[in-house]
Amino acid sequence: MSMQNKPQMVEAVMFFSERGGVCKQMFFAEFEALLDGVVNMPEFADQQMRIAYVSINPRLLIRAAVFFYLDFDEKGAPDSGWNIPLQHLSERAGRGPDLGAGPIRLACRSQCPVSWHQMHLWDPNLAPGHNDLVLLRDAVKRNNLGLLIEDDSTQALAPERLHMASEDKWYAPDAAAEAAGKVAETMDQEHRLKTAQLIKQQRLRISSLSQQHEEEVAKLRLATEEQNQSLQAQARELDQALRQQQELNVDLKAQLAAQAASMQALREEVAVQMRELESNERSASEILREQFENELQAKIASAVAEYKEQVAIRDVELAYRNEQDAQLHEDVERLKRERDELASQGGGQILERLAKLGVVFVVYHPGAGHLTIPLQDIGSYRDNPMAYAAAKCFVSEVQYRQWLAHYQQPSCEALLPSGQRCAIPIDRVDTPSRFSVGNSNCCERHKSASRLRTVG
């Protein structure tokens, strides 16, 4: 074999499909050409792909892996703003599981050597039977890329170089015991190393599941809070409508009483007129009084029937609104119970509810990173980009704005006795969901003072 054909370490990129498993492989040079716009990938149009960068040794064994996201537009072209230093991350990555050539260097969302790239990475699934690292190892072993393999076969020793020991040296109990002891020690070290690697792999998996569980609980808590606010707003609207209806009923009753009083006055006036006519012409007055009485009774009956009908309609509407108000209160209590039940569920059930959205537009917001906005969400994003970014970070809009002010200028916001801000530089909180007003945006002195006031 010439020097040009000697096997070397190879960098490759593996694409994962939505159903799981490696769906496409290419050399890193081909991937760079894809990023430079030389070629497109129409089969990945409008998708966010899960990709793994791997470093492979001449024995087809993985030495390093970086798991990252890449967005493609409607034409299959990759995101032009993507700039993750894969080789740098793989060189600085922490230890991962052993895939045949010792512990690999692993960079993922829960183990990222550069914190500001963490939001663009993803955690591999380490569950038995669906282990993404095992899928990578098997895909590399199949060698679909046609890599040069190092020959591990041992060369046979020439017969003339073989020497037979003398008979007095055929048996060496002490040497055999020493060799057995070394073998046992070697096996014990290998067992300890494998045990340590297994423990690290399980810790990595637990860290990944804990982070996903925390994000899902935050998402459910935010959704429940928004729904509670909506129901409370509806209840306030119904209460206001109820008060308006009650005021209207009071006005109608007052009008009815006024008209009844007017009718009574009219009746008294007619009676006076009747008594005056009675002195002149008895028969004419009787006829006239009967006509007035009939007309008056008809008008009164019509007015009373009309107002009774209006009052009955208002009473029905009032009862309906009371029923709606009671139903809304029951819905609020039910949603609170469902929220508590969802928050207490295990990570496995919550992970099954993850939704996958197609990519339409990509924007960048601090704390949320590059957000993929589906077409159906464009209107809501245009109306309030801050609220949309806050929802993606699983916090309210108010908390996101407070965190953004802290993120842009990480200094103490407590007020001194002079009325000025403390402005002492503090550690920046990179995640909005972990930002707490009065704690994350204060120095240690004012943070301690705030806790003392709270306890007092």
TrEMBL record:
The keyword Coiled coil applies. This is Chromosome partitioning protein ParA. It comes from the Bacteria. The lineage of its organism: Bacteria, Pseudomonadati, Pseudomonadota, Gammaproteobacteria, Pseudomonadales. Keywords: Coiled coil. It comes from Pseudomonas borbori. Residues 206-283 form a coiled coil.
